[in-house]
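Re-running Phosphoribosylformylglycinamidine cyclo-ligase to confirm reproducibility after the cluster update. Everything else is unchanged from the original entry.
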Amino acid sequence: MNTSAYAAAGVDIEAGDRAVELMKASVARSRRPEVLGGLGGFAGFFDASALKGYRHPVLATSTDGVGTKVAIAQAMDKHDTIGFDLIGMLVDDLVVCGAEPLFVTDYIATGKVVPERVAAIVGGIADACVAAGCSLVGGETAEHPGLLGPDEYDIAGATTGVVEKNAILGAHRIEVGDAVIGMKASGLHSNGYSLVRHVLLNQAGWALDRHVDELGRTLGEELLEPTKVYALDILDLIAKAQVHGMSHITGGGLANNVARVIPDGMTAVLERSSWTPPAVFQLVQQVGKVSQPDIDATLNMGVGMVAILPQDQVPAALAALQQREVHSWVLGEVVAEEGAGAARLV
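Result of re-run:
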């Protein structure tokens, strides 16, 4: 099929080429020395000889998307921050295992390729890769006319990292008496937006440009607040304190995600009184008349990351996080309790 016929079907190859040219500088910013070649090839290359310094390297991989938060970016026509949500969802799933993120690939599907919009999305992804210490080595932008509207898009990605086998964090290290440290979220991050949109936009009928006194800004600005990328903070924490396990608080809420790293015969008891959820969480609950169990099981409630470590490591851990300007506090403790590994808020 020739180009003009393809264009008549709704696919603009020239626009795709322009988008690639616009994003090249952004991608270059994220380049680690191990990356080989440039943008535009059929595959991205990462020099695996860099792993020879490991005694027993184990590769870790994760894939994810942003979910319905992209609808907020589209409605506000602001596309340069959504990449932080994608990278946060990807690399921070790796780092909780103790892995250093190495590289990322992304995928953007859109109804119509608008080069400037695609470049803004990829620019945000690249900036977030810089913040995470990894490289954006390639990706794909696909035009899907008839499947997505001209202004609609969705993004997803995958990442790979590496960790020494004997340094993998997880349930096998957790012990009774370990402290649980919470780390402040930047906001809603990238989970529960179907609930948030249903409550605030559909039920309450609020506009994104509505100024909300409790938030100190417009609703749209609050909902588009980028996900905090913790990767370098966590790698620094692991280097300075003896960490047993970690949990990235994403879909399913705080207790459900912490429970994923708690071994059988133990429960992580999390103290509600140790922190106050930011205003946006209280707003969703009050406006939508959402029950406490429902909101706990959906949103992060202001806790973006959790570390579990021996009590005597707490001062070093809090100091390391404070040095990197990550607000953290003692959230709870691991106790002995019969049954499957669990976590509960009290």
